[in-house]
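Task 17 of the worksheet. Students: predict the tertiary structure of the chain below and write it out as structure tokens. Keep your answer in the requested format; marks are given for formatting as well as content.
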Amino acid sequence: MKRVTIIRGLMAKDVTEMFRNRFVAAMTLMSIVIYAGVYYIMPKTIDETFEIAFHAPKQYESMLKKMIEEEGEEGIELKSFKSVKKLKNKVEEGDFNAGVVLPDDFAQKLLKGKKPEVIVYYSAEASKDIKRAVKLILEESAYALTQQQLPVDFDVKILGEDRAGEQIPPRARIIPTFIVMMLFMEMWGIANLITEETEKKTLNAILITPARVSDIIVAKGLVGTFLGFSEAVALAFLLQVLKGDIALILVTLLLGAMMVTGIAFIVGALAKDIMSMAGYAMLGLLLLIVPAIAVLFPGAVSSWVKAFPSYYLVEVFDQVVTYGESLANVWQNLGILLAFDIAVFWIGIIALRRRFQ
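Model answer:
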């Protein structure tokens, strides 16, 4: 009971000290308000322009573009690629809704009444409407070339995980980024607190009392995790994402709060002063933000992003909130996130013990 009382006292002191810092308090409040405001300002709908990449004989490309212009087709943009590989990469990265590869003898086969094989690549999030539109464009172009309704074999390939019918508005994509940035503010607050107490010799004074190093670490760990979790939950509530499997969302946010607290321990242990703390904190932000960019811009980063602990936080949160996935589909990533949390926390504790002694 004595240890519990000491830890409670240290926690109360930490919370008071954190919010006594006007910069940390103001930035925390402003972050919640600004992120929520930006979210509601962003468009609810997606861009309905069809962007199609083509690899085809030159005479067919020019004919297709001319046909679209003459028929007044709006919302369709075409771009030619000489390399099929580059075309596939651009479609997979989400730069185009579809990629169409026509064989060199496409027109000749149509004129002879044969079935040319047309390979159509779709981005993972292409809707059924986009697929129907692309097929219609190809069929109309075939008719324009031959003045006959000729059959064409379409070999459809989905690049990435098929998310047909699940077009995601920009403001929904940015939610994981806002959550990560909110957690970063808590990481900054705890790291700043540790650095200030070290500079001002406050920790030395505390250790003269019956409080132990372990009590200080436990108190800061609980405060950091609780504040990070509660602030992330508050933002999630304002962004209207606390729906569906709420328990799974809360567990994910809790693990995220634990992760940033562990990172804050490492930053606080390494920093010699406030300036160096800010530098190390920016590195921490980089670790957090890169996976969030992968959600905002699919294909913008490679598989190496999985080496970042925050990748599993962003991935689970995005899958559960954006696509409504259940525990059965995300438990592996959730387990990896927990393992990372334990490892980061353990490293942070060891680093702080060495700093305090």
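Marker's comment: Strands lie at 50-55, 76-80, 98-101, 117-123, 153-159. Residues 162-166 have pLDDT under 50 and may be disordered.
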